[in-house]
Amino acid sequence: MHKGDWIKSVVIAFGGSLLNFDREYFEKFRKFIIKLSRECKIYLVVGGGKTARNYIKFGREMGVSEEKLDRIGIDATRLNARLISCILDANNIIPESVEDAVDTHSPVVVMGGTLPGHSTDAVAAELAYKSGADILVIATDVKGIYDKDPKKHSDAVLYNELYVEDLIDRYGTEWRKAGENVVIDGPALDIIRKATYRVVVVDGRDIENMEMAIRGKDFVGTKIKRRGA
Ligand code: UTP
């Protein structure tokens, strides 16, 4: 595969749950990103993970407003983005908006959240739209989207493909509340519905599989489709 042959750019929503401080994983991840960045532009939008959730939980207990809790979450995502950007020797300035990310001219651009009222999934979905990306990869710590929470139910069934409209029927497009863990948040679903890029949900811990998904090959995970597309 050569630059420009098939994909121009990839946006990876890198779930905060993947920030596991596992050196072996991040060595492998770094190699993968560097290799891929020779072929296409890569945007990584990093989630807040445990840091965000712990801070938000305690802030909420102390009566902090929802908007301020979102801002605490955003700071956590930016701290995580800073770490990953340093590991990848990517951008020194962490963009605070999708527009600034699009204007950042390094092969790999890492960012976190932007504004209250959505999660980094929505940031990634918007970034994919505004940067003209070919694919949005939602990388999380389970294999994809299941019929029920696979961490709680051992008989949960993985969907190989799903229509975004069905997810919207089930979860809506509204933002719920800071730190709430949903597969893809409502505002992100709304953007995905209107966009045309490919969308996949994969387990980010399986780098080979993530690469297969990006390269359009068979992979384990959930393909998000659009009705009428
Ligand atoms: P995350 O994107 O990490 O949310 O942002 P999440 O759903 O917990 O995702 P994972 O599991 O890490 O992938 C953490 C919190 O930061 C705020 C929200 O409150 C969100 O729940 N946030 C994040 C925003 O308000 N705006 C943003 O652009 C990003």
Percent helix among the residues? 25-40%
Radius of gyration: 17 Å
Distance between the termini: 26 Å
Average residue-wise pLDDT: 95
Residue windows where pLDDT falls under 50 for at least 5 positions: none
Spell out the key features of this protein.
alpha/beta; 7-stranded mixed β-sheet; Carbamate kinase; 229 residues; binds uridine 5'-triphosphate
Describe the structure in brief.
The chain is α/β, with parallel strands linked by helices and 229 residues long. Helices cover 40% and strands 15% of the residues.
Task: Explain what the structure shows.
With 229 residues, the chain is of the alpha/beta class. It has a single domain (9-225), classed as Acetylglutamate kinase-like (Carbamate kinase, 3-Layer(aba) Sandwich). The protein is built from eight helices and seven strands. It has helices at residues 23-37, 49-61, 66-87, 98-102, 120-130, 164-171, 186-194, 207-214, and strands at 9-14, 41-46, 108-111, 135-140, 161-163, 198-203, 222-225. The chain has a seven-stranded mixed sheet, with helices on both faces. Helix 2 packs antiparallel against helix 3, helix 5 packs parallel to helix 7 and helix 6 (164-171) packs antiparallel against helix 7. The protein starts with 8 loop residues before the first strand and ends with a strand. Residues 15-17, 47-49, 52, 69-70, 73-74, 77, 113-120, 123, 178-179, 181 line the site of uridine 5'-triphosphate.
